[in-house]
């Protein structure tokens, strides 16, 4: 973590006022450990970010916001996988514009994993009262499985001898310091994620430098009850486990736990980051779907991509 100029201060500390002004962000960036390593001539582990994406009204805004964050992260390779049959012009042009090293792939989610027709009331499955006979509001299985698995296969084709893999969804908010915290991951590192699981934050509870429990409300009995944004994996684990993948048949909410159980034998193997998981470095913000109800009355120019 950066010193006095860190963007993230623990409660009660006094932040450097200039570091919080947009015009002085360069001071904070220059203080990041990775940039100091570059100055010292050290080789940085490459961060391989796997990002599933799909067509929606806020897609361009989400990707552009993420692009501007990743532009400030050194030694990074962005693997973007569209849930589509073919690459879209929007994502193709955005990646060219972003100027971050990238792989652009496509993987369509099988129809069997998408929304089902509601036959009974089950709000957790996206079938609230009044939805019977209609398409469920939620997917029947976890979203992004096919895309993340393709991203893992892409990592295996790249030269990640010294790298770290992170599953970075396009609608989260990331600090620059998060990427520095994960860069030295030896096996699996972890931290807290804000606004996840119906909580202000959720993630590991650390005692004496070891994960001793979990601050989670839903199904705390899961072996590894973590959010997708709450952990990173050393790329060697991906290479040494050629069949390592996300389970398309995992129950809702168990996707991450099933994945990590293929790598870890105990939570004690997890490497706590972000001041023993006391700092929040990533937010599960989820962009709100824009209100476009007036479009049916006054059509906008379809050639203007938003």
What is the string of helix and strand elements? HHEHEHEHEEHEEEEEHHEHE
Percent helix among the residues? 10-25%
Distance between the termini: 36 Å
How confident is the prediction overall: mean pLDDT? 85
Overall structural class, as computed from helix and strand content, comes to alpha/beta
Strand content: 15-25%
Structure summary, number of beta strands? 12
Computed over alpha carbons, the radius of gyration is 20 Å
Query: Tell me about the biggest sheet?
Result: 7 strands, mixed
Strand order, largest beta sheet: 3-2-1-4-10-6-11
Q: Helix count, per DSSP?
A: 9
Uncertain regions: pLDDT < 50 for 5+ in a row?
Answer: 1-29
Shape: globular
Explain what this protein looks like in three dimensions.
- There is one protein chain.
- With 306 residues, the protein is an alpha/beta fold.
- 23% of the residues lie in helices and 18% in strands.
- The protein contains nine helices and twelve strands.
- It has helices at 25-30, 33-39, 59-70, 89-98, 145-157, 176-182, 235-240, 255-260, 274-277, and strands spanning 46-53, 76-82, 102-106, 163-167, 173-174, 188-190, 192-194, 201-207, 210-215, 231-234, 271-272, 280-283.
- The chain has a seven-stranded mixed beta sheet, with helices on both faces. A five-stranded mixed beta sheet has the order 5-12-7-8-9.
- Helix 4 links the parallel strand 2 and strand 3 (102-106).
- Helix 3 runs parallel beside helix 4 (89-98).
- Mean pLDDT is 85; it is low at 1-29.
């Amino acid at each position: 973590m950066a010193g006095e100029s860190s963007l993230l201060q623990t409660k009660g500390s006094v932040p450097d006022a200039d570091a919080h002004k947009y015009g002085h962000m360069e001071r904070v960036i220059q203080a990041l450990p990775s940039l100091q390593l570059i100055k010292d001539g050290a080789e940085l582990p490459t961060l391989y970010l796997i990002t599933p994406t799909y067509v929606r009204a806020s897609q361009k805004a989400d990707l552009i916001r993420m692009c501007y964050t990743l532009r400030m992260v050194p030694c990074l390779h962005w693997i973007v996988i569209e849930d589509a049959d073919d690459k879209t012009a929007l994502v193709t042009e955005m990646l060219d514009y972003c100027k971050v090293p990238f792989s652009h792939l496509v993987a369509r989610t099988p129809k069997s994993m998408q929304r089902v027709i509601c036959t009974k009331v089950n709000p957790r499955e996206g079938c609230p009262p009044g939805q019977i006979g209609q398409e469920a509001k939620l997917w029947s299985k976890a979203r992004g499985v096919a895309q993340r698995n393709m991203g893992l296969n892409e990592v295996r084709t790249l030269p990640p001898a010294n790298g770290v893999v992170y599953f970075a969804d396009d609608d989260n908010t990331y600090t620059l310091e998060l990427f520095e915290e994960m860069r030295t991951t030896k096996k699996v590192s972890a931290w807290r994620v804000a606004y996840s699981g119906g909580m202000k934050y959720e993630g590991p509870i650390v005692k004496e430098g070891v994960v001793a429990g979990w601050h989670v409300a839903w199904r705390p009995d899961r072996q590894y009850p973590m959010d997708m944004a709450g952990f990173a994996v050393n790329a060697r684990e991906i290479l040494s486990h050629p069949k390592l993948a996300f389970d398309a048949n995992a129950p809702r909410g168990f996707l991450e736990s099933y994945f990590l159980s293929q790598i870890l034998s105990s939570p004690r193997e997890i490497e706590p980051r972000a001041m023993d998981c006391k700092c929040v470095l990533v937010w599960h913000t989820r962009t709100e779907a824009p209100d476009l109800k007036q479009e049916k009355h006054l059509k906008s120019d379809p050639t203007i991509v938003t």
